[in-house]
Specification:
Elements: H1 2-24, E1 59-63, E2 80-88, E3 93-104, E4 119-127, E5 135-141, E6 150-154, E7 169-171, E8 176-178, E9 189-200, E10 207-211, E11 214-215, E12 236-239, E13 259-269, H2 275-286
Antiparallel strand pairs: 1-13, 2-3, 3-12, 3-13, 4-9, 4-13, 5-6, 5-12, 6-7, 7-8, 9-10, 10-11
């Protein structure tokens, strides 16, 4: 009988030890978070279904070129166009310019002085160097003045087949500031879609340039104080040219030609996009999303 009692006591001791070990085992979900299903992320790229999901609250201007030349946030149609046609783009349709342009003779509210301090400009382009003329991809133009508030310049006057010169500039509180991809170049060409993106931080004066998801800029620090970007008013907007190339000449400069190339998914945000989201825009665009 004594032996049986000792055996029963031993069994209870083992059970207590087992319960103690189980109680001390670290939980796989200590914060009691909801379960995550891999199916929720199927088909996503960098966590997104579409480029449209990237900072939509900060998207202040958007041209999809899906059978429309309108800026979609304000539903603004161009005042004047030339040499333009719709073609297959990275996502839906794109606008193809053959010595052409789109000219919007209006002040977009999103680009007024008090509304545009920091920005991101993202677009896809097909373009080749022409060996003679520069290309103004887009310009936030100042009526009657050659240099705009913002000039998205491409140095297509080069004969190089391996280097696309990207050289944007902006008007500052005093004078102007610019940037240049001095050494790095993305793949480009008349039949190659290239993603080009610019960011400007109105607090730090940092002006960065990305191409195909890679930071290709040089001399990013443009400075503060008098070097900060300023969106002088009034403004107009031109895609593919400047005043001298759209029949409204303001001086004798002939260094630019109206654009020959294609543009798709032009987006302007009123903030600097984080690096991961810049890369996501590129990856989503490659997938037609």
């Amino acid at each position: 009988m004594k032996l049986l009692n000792n055996h029963i006591k031993w069994l209870f001791t083992l059970a207590a030890i087992s319960m103690s070990i189980t109680a001390c085992k670290k939980s796989d979900n200590p914060n009691d978070l909801p379960e995550v299903s891999p199916n929720d992320y199927a088909g996503k790229i960098d966590g997104y279904d579409s480029s449209d999901q990237i900072f939509p609250q900060n998207l202040v201007a958007y041209w999809s070129f899906d059978d429309t030349k309108n800026e979609l946030k304000s539903n603004s149609a161009p005042t004047q166009t030339a040499g333009d046609a719709f073609v297959t783009g990275m996502k839906g349709k794109a606008i193809k310019l053959t010595a052409g342009y789109l000219y919007y003779a209006k002040q977009f509210d999103a680009f007024k002085t008090d509304n545009l301090k920091s920005f991101t400009i993202s677009t896809w382009v097909q373009i080749a160097n022409n060996g003679s003329k520069r290309t103004m991809l887009l310009q936030l133009a100042r009526p009657g003045i050659f240099d705009g508030n913002f000039d998205f310049r491409l140095n297509t006057q080069s004969t190089s087949t391996t280097f696309l010169g990207i050289g944007p500039r902006f008007s500052a509180v005093v004078g102007s500031q610019d940037n240049l991809n001095a050494t790095l170049s993305p793949a480009f060409g008349a039949s190659v879609w290239t993603h080009i993106l610019l960011t400007y931080d109105g607090t730090t004066g940092i002006f960065k340039m990305w191409a195909n998801g890679v930071d290709v800029g040089s001399y990013n620090n443009r400075g503060t104080g008098n070097n900060l970007f300023k969106a002088y008013e009034p403004t107009e907007f031109i895609i593919g040219g400047n005043y001298n190339t759209i029949g409204k000449p303001v001086n004798a400069d002939v260094s630019y030609a109206a654009m020959t190339g294609s543009v798709d998914e032009l987006r302007i945000f009123n903030r600097v996009l984080p690096d991961a989201h810049i890369k996501a825009l590129y990856n989503l665009g490659k997938a037609g999303k």
